[in-house]
Specification:
Shape: globular
Strand order of the largest sheet: 3-2-1-4-5-6-7
Oligomer: single chain
Order of helices and strands: EHEHEHEHEHEHHHE
CATH superfamily: NAD(P)-binding Rossmann-like Domain
CATH architecture: 3-Layer(aba) Sandwich
Number of helices: 8
């Protein structure tokens, strides 16, 4: 049920952190991987690591907020791999400030990268997935899809939107046999959260106290959920948002 041999997956932001961990999980399950990222050096490093797992891997320089760039990237995937079955919308960023300290351009940029990009890539991927007989879209949300944060209003708005967009796409594309789900990572050790530990007083202590498993997550903790939602094992699951958070969101 979890075999992805013969499947082709695009992972945006797949050249590091959570994205690379999920791409690695899919590759270990047999999928061919196409990395979408803006940094050529990181793309090449990720491509080398994934290729060592014995699957076909490509890396494409793509700006996921630009429709033309996304279309060209998907054309490159079709030329190289011949099909598309799985899309993981993982690209994202954050900048922490109080709401009144964001400029409108900063708000728009964060919404574009964290939410609009997932819509752009999903819509562009839709015909390719439909022609393959169906497929899987996995959108990456956040604990801020559920909770608020005083210093992350644009990011929280975007990640809340990811969940509602996921539900709407799931309804729209069910007739094409496309399942659309979201993963909501908890507090995961990444470059972004390393900055958060510096910026947010007592963050480390608070996360450990609230998380029943008493640890921060690691990027590899997301791989199993990604494989599950990308595989035939989840064919009757769509429109869901799955927290992968060590129990953080279940604790009051």
């Amino acid at each position: 049920m979890f075999d992805l041999s013969g499947r082709v997956a695009v992972v945006t932001g797949g050249n590091g952190g959570i994205g690379l961990a999920m791409a690695t999980g899919l590759a270990k399950a047999g999928a061919e991987i196409a990395i979408f990222g803006r940094r050529k050096d990181r793309n090449e490093d990720a491509q080398a690591r994934l290729s060592a797992l014995g699957v076909k891997v490509s890396a494409v320089e793509v700006d996921v907020t630009d429709e033309g760039s996304v279309a060209s990237g998907l054309d490159a995937v079709m030329a190289e791999h011949g099909a598309l079955h799985i899309l993981i919308n993982n690209a994202g960023t954050n900048e922490r400030k109080l709401p009144q300290d964001y400029s409108l351009s900063e708000w728009n940029s964060l919404i574009n990268v964290n939410l609009t990009s997932a819509f752009i890539v999903s819509v562009a991927a839709h015909p390719h997935l439909a022609r393959s007989g169906g497929g899987k879209i996995i959108n990456i949300g956040s604990m801020l899809s559920i909770f608020g944060n005083a210093r992350a209003a644009p990011y929280a708005a975007a990640k809340g939107g990811i969940v509602q967009m996921t539900k709407s796409l799931a309804q729209a594309w069910a007739e094409d046999n496309i399942q659309v789900n979201a993963i909501l990572p908890g507090w995961i050790e990444t470059d972004l959260t390393a900055v958060a530990k510096v910026q947010i007083p007592r963050l480390d202590e608070n996360v450990l106290n609230r998380t029943p498993q008493k640890r921060w997550g690691k990027p590899d903790d997301l791989a199993g959920a990604a494989v599950f939602l990308a595989s035939p094992a989840s064919d009757f699951i769509t429109g869901t948002a799955l927290p992968v958070d060590g129990g953080y969101s279940s604790n009051t």
